[in-house]
From TrEMBL:
PROSITE patterns referenced in this protein's UniProt entry, alphabetically: CN_HYDROLASE
Swiss-Prot/TrEMBL keywords: Hydrolase
Native source species: Limosilactobacillus balticus
Protein family: Belongs to the carbon-nitrogen hydrolase superfamily. NIT1/NIT2 family.
Protein name: Carbon-nitrogen family hydrolase
Residue ranges annotated for the CN hydrolase domain, each copy included: 3-239
GO MF annotation, one: hydrolase activity
Amino acid sequence: MRRKIALAQLNIQLGNPAENYQKAKQAIEEAANHHTDIVVLPEMWNTGYALDQLSEVADENGQKTQQFLSELALKNQINIVGGSVAVRRGHSFFNTTYVYDQKGNLISSYDKVHLFGLMNEDQYLEAGHKENYFKLAGVPSASFICYDLRFPEWIRTVARYGTDILYFPAEWPSNRIKQWQIMLQSRAIENQAFVVAANRVGTDLENSFNGHSLVIDPLGRIIHDAGEVEQVSYAVIDLAQLAQVRGPIPVFKDRRPSLYH
């Protein structure tokens, strides 16, 4: 079973939702025109890290984003891992992922669990508290957000359900991009799953982002690297590879969780 995946490596405009929604729309439509099964957006693509402007630019209850992604998924018959967006719920703000199937149905949402103090998330955002496991395009999957990558115990908590693809939308700065690659490869190997990671390019007031959105196979091999330019790029994964990897080394069967604290 093969799936074609598109990575939307966007140059997000700080605090400019109108332009960013247009960029996302163009990326999704381009992916659909290339007969893609799943398109993946980066983290906080609606606003960037305009955290001090959230009261003006965050999406109220995620309503605009949900309608936007649902309509594009249905119109273009494409599955969407909607990266993440800044959302306001009541008096709180969240970094939230929405996942839509090709019929326009919301099949999963997720609030970022681990907030990144180095980019002041902990000062402006509320942390999530739930796992994010779902089936998309017939494939058992899970998605996380950026800093979650540094917590392998959290990834394993969800991956134990039997996930075949792990999604990581991010705004990962260029000065730590080597760590991005190494940790993504590690998450693929230790969970015997494909990893699909969509990063951004461009700059904001304090950070530079150089992309390198990646697709990685269960042996940790990089199938696709999107490079350092704004683009929609593509990779095909062969899910039959999973059985070949998991059969000889059944790491989930051999776990001893009673010893883990």
